[in-house]
Amino acid sequence: MILLLAPVVVYTSAFSHSSYSSLSMGFLPQFERRVVLQSSLLTSLFGGSDDPSKAVAKNSPTSKGPTNEIVKTVNGMKHRRLGGSDIAVSELGLGSQRWVSADFNAPDKDMCYKFMDYAILKHGVNLIDTAEQYPIPSDGKSANEGDSELLIGQWMKDRKVPRKDVVIATKITGGRNVTPRNIKKDCEGSLKRLGTDYIDVYQLHWPQRYSPQSNWGQSLAYDIKSDSSPYWRAMGGPTSFEDLCMAMEGLIQDGKIRGWGLCNDNAYGLAACARTAKALGVTPPCSIQGDFSLIDRKSEENGVAEAASPFNENVGFMSYNALAGGMLTGKYMDVPAALDDLQNRDRAMKSLESPRGRMDTRGWGGTLYRYRSEAAQRAIAQYKDIVKRYKLASLTELSLRWTRQRSLVTTTLVGHTNQKQLEESVEYFTKKDPLGEELLWEIDRVHMQNRLPIFSSDNVGKDWYGEGEIGETIP
Fold it and tell me: Is residue 80 helix, strand or coil?
């Protein structure tokens, strides 16, 4: 028997998502004709399912459920399942990279306590993300690596917070530091500093192998020369996926961690870890953490979202840098960041002396230059216009609420300098009404003009020969 699939004709306007079931309107010059196959018809014919929970139950019998499903709501804050684990994390997480750091505007101990009191004890946040390397920057005097973990542990002790009420995600330093021996040793160090018996999510800060996207520059292309360097290939090469998965499983079996994950990795690393773990019969990663914002949507389009889907590897996604180093707050729009203000030296020097944020400093300003690319700033200006047209409070609101609504994202980690910033974040992550479809389409229209704005540049020197502005390999 031959089945003929009749195409469904859909007429869509360039200015809306309206569709029409009848062609009786006759002449429609403003509409574009497209032909699609109805997904429900294909599903019924080939036995598929559009229910993620059914896919997970079928493909991953050890899974507790599909990633990103809403498990509960606490004080208006939704908590979602992280991967296939039994760990539920709030949609807003506290990022602690600069807590008690040597940065000019770093929140001190009292302010960090205030953050945790407000977010965790009063407003339904349960996730804190940290690392053994935090705070950054640390100068070895006023701030040392490990101080952020110490602070979090001391707060839980001082406030007598039940351990189950806080989800702690911390990280082992990446690269060649990731070995079975160091995974165990560094985890023990974090446990001691945190003053706890277990870590909820233990992550690699960056991959144990070479990866072009695990840096702060504009590298995107895989470079075999970099991968073949002595750093990566000497002394037996990077830790294998098999050894990595077995080491993490050892920590789980010892009760020292509940789950594990990746950070600053890509679709290859995610799929390789998940498939290796399943082949070995051990616990697969439950999360991957990545840079993600209105001007950095690569994780939706480079295979990460597909790999992480509950229909595939069922891994949660922790978004960070949703405000693009402060660029998506709009505070650098009227007056450029200090390092970009070349036409007004006096004003640039004033910004360096009294910085509005990290982009006005020589250190962070240089390191985070990609968020200020010409393409990124063009997109930011267009997003600011959307804010005005749709009468939102700020570019910050648009940025955070958009990130919250993405199907890839389980939780968004936001770092704060002051209490007002935190209160705004909590407000945006507890709003009941989502951004409308028309507004989201306006965002997508801007995105389609340049899908990788922070990896684009109008300023590449003729004599740079494969190096970006901070010495990274490009393209």
Answer: strand
Residue 50 is which amino acid?
A: D
CA distances from 405 to 223, 323, 395, 434, 436 (A): 34, 15, 16, 7, 11
Which phi and psi (to 5°) does residue 384 adopt?
A: -65, -35
In whole angstroms, give the CA distance from residue 455 to residue 379.
13
Query: In this structure, how many other beta carbons lie within 10 angstroms of the beta carbon of residue 372?
Result: 20
How many residues comprise the chain? 475
Crossing angle of helices 419-429 and 109-116, rounded to 10°:
20
CB-based burial of residue 16 (10 Å sphere; 0-12 exposed, 13-18 middle, 19+ buried)? Answer: exposed
Tokens coding 296: 């950095």
Given a contact cutoff of 8 angstroms between Cβ atoms, the answer to whether 359 and 326 are in contact is yes
- CA–CA distance, 392 with 428 (Å, rounded to integer): 11
- Residue in 243, 239, 252, 250 with CA at minimum distance from that of residue 207: 239
Angle CA(18)–CA(24)–CA(27) in degrees, nearest 5? 80
Q: Give yes or no for a contact between 378 and 456, defined as CB atoms under 8 angstroms apart.
A: no
Instruction: Take residue 147 and report the two structure tokens written for it.
Output: 């101080």
Q: Is the pLDDT of residue 84 over 70?
A: yes
Instruction: Report which DSSP code applies to 195.
Output: T
C-beta separation of 379 from 294 below 8 A: yes
Using only C-alpha atoms, the chain has a radius of gyration, in whole angstroms, of 23
* CB neighbours of residue 267 within 10 Å: 17
Query: How far is 277 from 44, CA to CA, in rounded Å?
Result: 33
Reported as a pLDDT band with limits 50, 70 and 90, residue 60 is: low
Read off the amino acid at residue 307.
A
Q: Tell me the C-alpha distance between 87 and 127, whole Å.
A: 10
35 pLDDT higher than 60:
no
SS3 3: coil
* Separation of alpha carbons 462 and 475, rounded Å: 14
What is the distance of C-alpha 437 from the center of its chain? 23
Whether the per-residue pLDDT at 30 is higher than 80: the answer is no
Q: What is the rounded CA–CA span in Å between residue 366 and residue 154?
A: 34
DSSP structure string for 243-270 = HHHHHHHHHHHTTSEEEEEEES--HHHH
Alpha carbon distance 13, 19 (integer Å): 8
Looking at residue 298, its amino acid is K
pTM of the model as a whole = 0.90
